């Protein structure tokens, strides 16, 4: 039977075109072909028919039940896609009937890499003096030495040594890795080292084992290890490059020119990267879509501060990218290109014409920030360099501002007889110039003729902090905080600094610390606001139960604690000890979504479409101590990278979820309270303890119970009657669309 016909039969089976396989009922018994019989077996199995006769016929042809199950295991990989458990099940049946079945043992080893199977094979061949069998087994074993072999006893290593003694290593070109490992385990170190000396491309596990015993140096190990696994021996890119370059210069098959370009780049040998890329060996033989090599070449030029290669950049930008690794490195190139574009802006001085144009407002900076939030970029080893360069741009942008202020409002002559500051805005410049003592004196003089402010006390405290004068630092942070409270500034930054100094100087004042910690958290929460254009719309998917009815009727948001959330990942699983000390653990959240039509949201949060979706319109007022913000979807590395700033530390605890949940498009209101009421504000007279919001729509799930329709309409009518100034609530019903069973459409309901 030709392969094309065979493949056609497999295709018919996978597509369940069983009628086109009906010929097997007669043909299989006539031909006694194991393939025909095996296909008939699986055909009958799929149709839930008795397979006994077919199995018995296979046993006659193959000689044993164990062989039948083994044959069926192999065939199962052809007719079932990605069903290793089916394959394994048949192999295990085969072994249960014949534990000495060599082929079944090989099959189990290929599945598990458990050394007990290959050792059993070696034992059988060794007992039978089967040289060909030993040779094959040693070949298989040597190319995939399992790490769990290390726990094997001396009998195992003696068996391996004996097996090798019976085969001709040279004539059969058997690798000697397992034998070298056996010599190590049997403490025959000289024999093992002699083997390693006379051979190349040795398994990294073996080399690492000899290095760990101090029998080989790292450099000696690199000379002998399989070239593709140098990184298993050392994390030194220079050493890896050196050994690969040696092979490349000798015109060996590996590494390829594309591979050596990457290895040279990782070793920061950027000039070599450029040379390899421009060499005839690469230019004449590079593949059409070798995006990675182009990317490494462009990055190398960037680090070498060479002229930007617009031709290759254009080629890279226009190229179709097939592999994820390529996408990552191409995005890395784009980051450096954007950084390059921002450099001329930073080098310009501010003038009155664009003084307020911060670097963060430029399109290139926003694009850079967006790429840097992608998980694959965060995991890349160049991420930290990119962040460093980005922060450098921010720092130099601030420096431009400072220089502008110095140039226009502050003399460089620091004659202490003359006032150094005329406004508190100038304090930042002196602080930036690290003139801490001068700034303290200037503020003392300033206080003689001006009332102290939160900022004047803060700058004084900051200077004492820099001078390591902790007593005065604490004194002035306290003064700044007390003045902030008196003037009701609710300055979270001041509260944090005072909290930090209080913990450092007076850790015994536990009650005061806890009270201040609470105040700081409320102040910081209040900084989180979503910019509104008119009114912001959010949706709440929820079951229609007594709690929902009460919240609707009485117009309040209920904030559950973590233990009562229906989604166990609403707040990150962080142990209390791992929460930053300055962040409270008792926050409650009310989750909302910008996604108005989501099958998953209806399923997960609205009682499998039996509940409702409430549409809220929010104004721009929240009570003090209540925050609202979008949830960011990211991974743990991004979370760690953002912990340097107060708001980011806060955000990572309360406002970050795994990227798998991004479909929710969630925003959260968060506070320490259990319940907060809401109403549509009249700004001439409003309740500052309430949230500015009102219901504009309620949508019933597609499975909403008919017997509850009257209740929901009466409830909505009651809410409308009570809030006559508000727009009438729109009532809609979700229905499965006629042309798409996986989509919902909303139809308005009259009530």
Write up what this structure looks like.
With 751 residues, the chain is of the alpha/beta class. It contains 36 helices and twelve strands.
Q: Can you count the beta strands?
A: 12
Unreliable residue stretches: 411-418, 566-579
Helix-residue proportion: 40-55%
End-to-end distance? 71 Å
Shape descriptor: extended
Radius of gyration: 36 Å
Q: How many H/I helices?
A: 36
Q: What structural category do the secondary elements indicate?
A: alpha/beta
Count up the domains.
4
Sheet having the most strands: 7 strands, mixed
Quaternary = single chain
Q: What attributes characterize this protein structure?
A:
751 residues; alpha/beta; Serine Threonine Protein Phosphatase 5, Tetratricopeptide repeat; 7-stranded mixed β-sheet; 3-stranded antiparallel β-sheet; 36 helices; 12 strands
Produce the secondary structure layout.
Blueprint: H1 3-14, H2 24-31, H3 34-46, H4 52-62, H5 65-79, H6 84-97, H7 102-112, H8 115-127, H9 131-142, H10 154-165, H11 169-172, H12 177-185, H13 189-197, H14 204-212, H15 218-224, H16 237-249, H17 257-266, H18 270-278, H19 280-283, H20 291-303, H21 310-318, H22 324-347, H23 363-371, H24 375-379, H25 383-409, H26 427-432, H27 436-449, H28 454-466, H29 470-486, H30 492-505, H31 510-525, E1 536-542, H32 546-554, E2 556-558, E3 588-593, H33 599-605, E4 612-618, E5 627-630, E6 632-634, H34 636-641, H35 646-654, E7 656-658, E8 666-671, E9 675-679, E10 691-700, H36 709-722, E11 730-736, E12 744-748
Parallel strand pairs: 6-7, 9-10, 10-11
Antiparallel strand pairs: 1-4, 2-9, 3-8, 4-10, 5-8, 11-12
Helix pairs in contact: 2-3, 3-4, 3-5, 5-6, 6-7, 7-8, 8-9, 8-10, 10-12, 12-13, 14-15, 16-17, 17-18, 17-20, 18-20, 20-22, 22-23, 22-25, 27-28, 28-29, 29-30, 30-31
């Amino acid at each position: 039977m030709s392969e094309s016909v065979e493949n056609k039969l497999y295709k018919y089976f996978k597509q369940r075109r069983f009628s086109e396989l009906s010929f097997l009922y007669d043909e299989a018994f006539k031909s006694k072909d194991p393939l025909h019989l095996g296909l008939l077996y699986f055909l009958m199995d799929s149709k839930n028919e008795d397979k006994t006769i077919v199995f018995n016929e296979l046993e006659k042809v193959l000689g044993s039940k164990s062989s039948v199950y083994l044959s069926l295991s192999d065939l199962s990989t052809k007719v079932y896609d990605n069903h290793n458990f089916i394959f394994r099940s048949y192999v295990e049946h085969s072994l249960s009937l014949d534990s000495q079945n060599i082929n079944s043992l090989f099959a189990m080893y290929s599945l598990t890499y458990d050394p007990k199977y290959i050792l059993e094979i070696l034992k059988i061949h060794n007992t039978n003096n089967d040289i060909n069998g030993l040779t094959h087994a040693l070949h298989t074993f040597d190319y995939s030495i399992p790490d769990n072999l290390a726990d094997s006893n001396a009998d195992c290593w003696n068996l391996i040594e004996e097996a090798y003694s019976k085969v001709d290593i040279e004539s059969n070109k058997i690798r000697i890795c397992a034998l070298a490992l056996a010599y190590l385990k049997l403490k025959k170190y000289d024999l093992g080292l002699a083997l390693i000396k006379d051979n190349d491309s040795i398994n990294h596990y073996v080399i690492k084992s000899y290095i760990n015993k101090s029998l080989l140096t790292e450099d000696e190990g690199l000379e002998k290890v399989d070239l593709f696994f140098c990184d298993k021996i050392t994390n030194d890119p220079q050493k890896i490059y050196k050994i690969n370059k040696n092979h490349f210069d000798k015109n060996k098959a590996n590494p390829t020119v594309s591979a050596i370009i990457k290895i040279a780049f990782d070793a920061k040998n950027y000039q070599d990267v450029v040379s390899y890329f421009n060499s005839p060996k690469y230019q004449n033989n590079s593949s059409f879509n070798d995006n990675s090599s182009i990317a490494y070449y462009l990055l190398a030029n960037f680090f070498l501060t060479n002229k930007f290669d617009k031709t290759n950049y254009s080629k890279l930008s226009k190229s179709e990218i097939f592999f994820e690794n390529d996408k990552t490195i191409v995005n890395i190139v784009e980051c450096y290109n954007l950084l390059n574009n921002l450099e001329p802006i930073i080098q310009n001085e501010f003038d009155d014409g664009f003084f307020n144009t911060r670097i963060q407002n430029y399109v290139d900076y926003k694009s850079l920030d967006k790429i840097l939030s992608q998980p694959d970029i965060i995991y890349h080893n160049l991420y930290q360099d990119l962040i460093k360069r980005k922060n450098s741009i921010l720092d130099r942008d601030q420096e431009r501002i400072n220089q502008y202020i110095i140039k226009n409002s502050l003399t460089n002559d620091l004659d202490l007889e003359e006032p150094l500051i005329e406004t508190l805005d100038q304090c930042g410049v002196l602080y930036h110039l690290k003139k801490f003592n001068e700034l303290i004196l200037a503020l003392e003089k300033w206080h003689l003729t001006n009332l102290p402010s939160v900022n004047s006390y803060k700058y004084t405290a900051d200077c004492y902090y820099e001078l390591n004068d902790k007593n005065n630092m604490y004194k002035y942070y306290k003064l700044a905080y007390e003045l902030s409270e008196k003037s009701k500034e609710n300055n979270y930054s001041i509260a944090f600094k005072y909290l930090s100094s209080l913990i450092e100087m007076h850790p015994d004042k536990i009650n005061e610390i806890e009270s201040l910690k609470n105040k700081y958290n409320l102040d910081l929460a209040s900084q989180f606001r979503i910019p509104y254009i008119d009114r912001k719309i959010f949706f709440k998917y929820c079951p229609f139960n007594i709690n929902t009815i009460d919240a609707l009727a009485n117009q309040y948001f209920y904030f559950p604690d973590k233990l009562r959330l229906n989604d166990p990942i609403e707040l990150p699983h962080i142990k209390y000890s791992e929460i930053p000390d300055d962040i409270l653990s008792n926050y409650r959240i009310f989750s909302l979504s910008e996604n108005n039509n989501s099958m998953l949201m209806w399923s997960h949060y609205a009682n499998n479409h039996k509940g409702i979706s409430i549409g809220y319109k929010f104004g721009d007022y929240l009570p003090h101590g209540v925050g609202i913000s979008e949830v960011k979807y990211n991974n743990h590395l991004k979370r760690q990278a953002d912990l340097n700033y107060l708001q980011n530390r806060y955000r990572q605890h309360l406002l970050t979820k795994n990227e798998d949940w991004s479909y929710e498009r969630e925003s959260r209101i968060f506070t320490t309270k259990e319940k907060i009421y809401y109403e549509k504000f009249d700004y001439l007279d409003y309740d500052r303890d309430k949230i500015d919001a009102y219901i504009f729509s309620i949508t019933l799930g597609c499975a909403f119970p008919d017997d509850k329709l009257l209740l929901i309409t009466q409830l909505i009518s009651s809410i409308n009657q009570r809030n006559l100034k508000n727009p009438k609530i729109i009532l809609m019903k979700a229905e499965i669309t006629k042309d798409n069973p996986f989509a919902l459409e909303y139809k308005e309901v009259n009530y």
